[in-house]
């Protein structure tokens, strides 16, 4: 019934925070979204929308030498298309420093070496709660932004591990229901890119009191205010909340045993297959 498009921001090693963002689109609306998106790209004379390139006016990109007004206009159009076809959006952000400090040992093995992996796991938890509230009982189809050709890509393997862990807890809902695809070929991934970027800029303003770029500020609050503030859930994992989560996990013997069993059983397991 629903396809979830998951994008990231801040996975670069030099970025101090990481985020995963998900866009939920009814499967019946994907073809219509694709057609509208093709018309949008033609009318704006761009081959692919990428937020960071657009905002920066990156050299040798479609956005080089664009005025601030044109950048704002195109981002506004992206938001309008996104809100027209997507029924909900989620994001979870975390600082890498806090994660490295608090999430260690077997909890790190279970939660993931990469900060982005933990953010993906947290987003999936939110999606499951959303499905429960909306009484969605069929599996989501998950499409992740492309992580390269290499099968030895550690970040990609960790995402596969997250999906395997969720499959163990909810059989039939994750195995064969996810894939990695290129943003250029998937309009919804280009839409989720702006969601991830604006939520990342907001998270940086919370974590580090960094001023938000005007387009980021405009985009974040446009998403946040949409549909009487019920459309987007954007979480910034504060240091205090992360510490509480770690303490809870460490004090619960049942969860500790479950983690140990998972880590031991999956040390030599192959990752789950993607969707065909």
Give an account of the 3D structure:
With 276 residues, this protein is α/β, with parallel strands linked by helices. The chain has a single domain, classed as Nucleotidyltransferase, domain 5, CATH 3.30.420. The protein is built from eleven helices and six strands. Strand 1 and strand 2 form a beta hairpin. The longest helix has 22 residues, at 187-208. It is globular and about 55 Å long.
Summarize the structure.
By secondary structure, the chain is an alpha/beta fold. The protein has eleven helices and six strands.
Name some characteristics of this structure.
276 residues; six-stranded mixed beta sheet; Nucleotidyltransferase, domain 5; 11 helices
Radius of gyration: 19 Å
Helix content: 55-70%
Listing every helix as H and every strand as E from the N terminus to the C terminus, the arrangement reads EEHHHEHHHEHEHHEHH
Number of helices: 11
Task: Record the SSE blueprint.
Blueprint: E1 2-9, E2 17-26, H1 30-44, H2 51-56, H3 68-85, E3 88-95, H4 96-102, H5 105-111, H6 115-134, E4 141-145, H7 154-169, E5 178-181, H8 187-208, H9 214-229, E6 232-237, H10 239-251, H11 253-265
Parallel strand pairs: 1-4, 3-6, 4-5
Antiparallel strand pairs: 1-2, 2-3
Helix pairs in contact: 1-3, 3-8, 3-9, 5-11, 6-7, 8-9
């Amino acid at each position: 019934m629903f396809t979830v498009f998951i994008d990231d921001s801040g996975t670069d090693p030099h970025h101090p925070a990481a985020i995963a963002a998900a866009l939920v689109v009814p499967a019946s609306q994907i073809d219509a979204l694709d057609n509208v998106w093709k018309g949008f790209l033609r009318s704006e004379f761009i081959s692919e929308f990428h937020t960071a390139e657009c905002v920066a006016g990156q050299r040798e990109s479609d956005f080089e030498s664009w005025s601030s007004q044109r950048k704002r206009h195109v981002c506004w159009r992206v938001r309008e298309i996104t809100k027209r076809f997507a029924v909900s959006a989620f994001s979870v952000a975390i600082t890498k420093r806090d994660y490295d400090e608090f999430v260690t040992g077997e909890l790190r093995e279970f939660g993931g070496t990469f900060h982005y992996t933990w953010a993906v796991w947290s987003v999936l938890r939110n999606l499951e709660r959303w499905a429960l509230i909306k009484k969605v009982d069929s599996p989501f189809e998950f499409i992740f932004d492309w992580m390269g050709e290499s099968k030895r890509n550690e970040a990609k393997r960790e995402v596969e591990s997250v999906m395997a862990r969720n499959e163990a807890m909810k059989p039939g809902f994750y195995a064969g229901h996810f894939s990695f695809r290129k943003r250029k070929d998937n309009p919804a991934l280009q839409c989720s890119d702006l969601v991830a970027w604006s939520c990342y800029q907001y998270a940086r303003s919370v974590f580090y009191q960094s001023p938000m770029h005007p387009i980021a500020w405009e985009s974040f609050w446009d998403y946040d205010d949409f549909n009487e503030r019920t459309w987007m859930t954007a979480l910034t994992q504060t240091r205090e909340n992360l510490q509480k989560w770690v303490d809870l996990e460490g004090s619960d013997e049942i969860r500790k045993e479950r983690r140990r069993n998972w880590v031991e059983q999956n040390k030599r397991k192959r990752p789950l297959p993607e969707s065909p």
